[in-house]
Amino acid sequence: MSKKTFLRGAAILGIAGLMVQVMGAVFRIPLGNIIGDEGMGYYQTAYPIYVFLLVFSTNGAPAAISKMTSERIAKGAYGEAHRVFRLSFILMGVLGILAAAIFFFGAEFMVELLGNPGAKYAMMAIAPALLFVPLMSVYRGYFQGMQQMGPTAVSQLGEQAARVAIGLTLAIILIPKGLGAAAAGATFGTSVGPILGVLILAVIYSRRRRGILAEIEEKGVPKHRESSAKILKTLAWIAVPITIGVSILPMMNIVDVLVVMTRMQATGFSPEEANALYGQLTGMAGPVINLPMALALSMALSMVPAIAAANSIGDRDFLEVNIRLGLRTAMIIGVPCSFGLMALSEPIMTLLYPLQEASAVSASRSLFLLATGVIFLCIAQAMAGILQGLGHPGVAVYGLLAGLVVKTISTYILTGIPSLNIEGAAIGSSLGFAAIGLFNLFAVRKLTGIRFDQKLSVWKPLAAGAIMFLLVVGLYKMTAGILGNSIATLLAVGAGAAVYGILLIRIRAISPHEIRLLPKGEKLERLLIKLRLIREDRI
What we know:
Elements: H1 7-74, H2 78-105, H3 107-113, H4 120-125, H5 129-145, H6 150-174, H7 179-219, H8 228-245, H9 248-266, H10 271-312, H11 316-343, H12 345-352, H13 357-371, H14 374-389, H15 393-415, H16 422-448, H17 454-483, H18 485-506, H19 512-516, H20 521-530
């Protein structure tokens, strides 16, 4: 297998993740405008629990399957890699049936326990997704193990497109029947999307199956084959810790589901007020954080097979290259997302939710506080991917547990302060992100003994981000009164992104060699030379 850093795969998944989040915004933003913070409160009572269970199928299982696949391919055992795929398909199918049944028949019990019975039908509506998502995860993990990120990217786009179209249509149709029914219609779109995703992956697999089987036949059957029980045991042993390790946002959201509603009602808020404020945090501000989260998770998933392959064949030099690149990429992604969202928190929320302006302004304070933790969130995901690739997914679990302790205690205390209320949960999330990110970073350093170049990986991106922050704030203030909020916000975002990218290249936080590793990297490099942003004699 040829040497590949995770950059190309991360870029492919990152671009797909960005497009998916844009489509998700096309879904969540109109939905928030249609059903308001109360309806989003019902929607978000069901959705975080679903997402938590979904993580095993979309992240834990694919990461485990990709790791097991890449390790076997690196050693030339293509047949054993395909056995991992087949056995995983059976296991995940059984688990999907069980999960769907629990959600559908246990919906009423769960929403009563959470103190939000109006979310019952929303909870039931997402159950069918769990029949198909596990099967989709097996295909994705197998392709990712071969470092083929294209199928995952295509299926993500198809899945999200179906979710957006059907979810919004049903929400609009059902709004006359009440906010609970509209929220259920929106969540049902989530169940339809995975069906299309599975069909797309099945078609791609069927087209490539002949080549896969030919490669297996060429390599022959190994003398010592692992038993099916051992493969499944290894899969579970890897997937469960990975699931927990990458469940940062879902687990933080679960804490909010369990703590925020009951805590705020105990301190004097009515159930309706608590539900509306909870909807502002998780249904309006929270989705904006999903964009950097998607980019960071794409990077982490791409790192697992690259790190695992280098580690399995003992290529220390290549391992160090990928690990150092992991921290730098996390900072390069996290810094502009964090600084940009802090600089424009209120303009962004007002732009996204024009029909719910009062709620948007209120939610912007939560967005600002969540944005302060985005850098640590990106570091946490990148380091979790490295730990998984190194064969230490359990270490990332301890990091998540440390973050959850910080999150739970701080959220419980701070949401009990009337002047903070829901903002206390946002502060708690950022403190939790910081705890996980720092834990995982020090764990990677201790396990590998690798020392990171702080100037290159940390200080250069922070310097570029600080300059970008000042530019964005200044440009928005100068243009908002003339152009209006929407145009001024978009102009500031575009200018900030361009300046940040130019600064990174100018201060050599990104090298020409790394640019060439990206999809269409050589064309991008030639363009930058023409623009005189990089010098040809430095390549």
